[in-house]
Amino acid sequence: MKKTLIIGANGQIGKIVVELLHNQDRPVVAMVRSKQQAEKLENMGVEAVVGDLETDFEHAFKDCDKVVFSAGSGGNTGDDKTLLIDLWAAKKAVDYSLKEGIQHFVMVSGLGAQDPDEFESEIKPYLVAKYFADQYLLSSGLNYTILRPGSLTNDKGNGLITTTRSTSTNDLFISREDVAKSIEYYINRDEVSNQIFELYHGNEVISSALTASN
Fold first, then answer.
1. What is the pLDDT of residues 13-41, one digit of tens each?
2. Which residues are catalytic?
3. Where are the extended beta strands (E) located within 11-156?
4. DSSP letter string over 154-204?
5. CA 167 to chain centroid
6. For residues 133 and 160, what is the distance between their CA atoms, to the nearest angstrom?
7. Residues 2 and 27: beta-carbon distance below 8 Å
8. What gap in Å lies between CA 116 and CA 51, rounded to an integer?
9. What is the pTM assigned to this prediction?
């Protein structure tokens, strides 16, 4: 069985996705930035690879047929890192995926990436980067899933979501754990193709909500 590459495996969502897939005995490769992070994962029985998103990381794609791009520059960096990680590294990941024959590319995007002018936001440069990264994936010809979660929380996930945007901005949030579980749902289904959807906390089980959105 081919492997699933998690880019951004040391991030908050990436860590959960790696754990979920590993616990299911699904072959997974966790891409991280340092040898120390890789060693920690390997001690847990997880295959890890060190890669720098600002240079060449094509080696990480070896023997993989699915990719999850959940990397991000983080809220404490400047717009330069946002451009290099959230846009340019995502673009390179798409290019490597095309070269290596990846069958499914899951992009973790964000609410507002569909139109960075839609919301008043302090993170507009991030949304612009995500917009162009998403557009590059859409035009690539790869089989894709693009997730646009609302505001992320560290609450315990309960597996209940919705893909329908509420009229109240107070409801536009979701736990990182439920985003990770949604990624897991799509990674485990080979028949899914070319889907874009928003994710929020809700009252539908993940399988029902995401099946209805297909």
1. 999 999 999 999 999 999 999 999 999 99
2. 126
3. 28-32, 47-50, 64-69, 104-108, 144-149, 151-153
4. -SPP-SEEESSPPSSGGG-EEEHHHHHHHHHHHHT-TT--SEEEEEEE-SE
5. 25
6. 28
7. yes
8. 30
9. 0.95
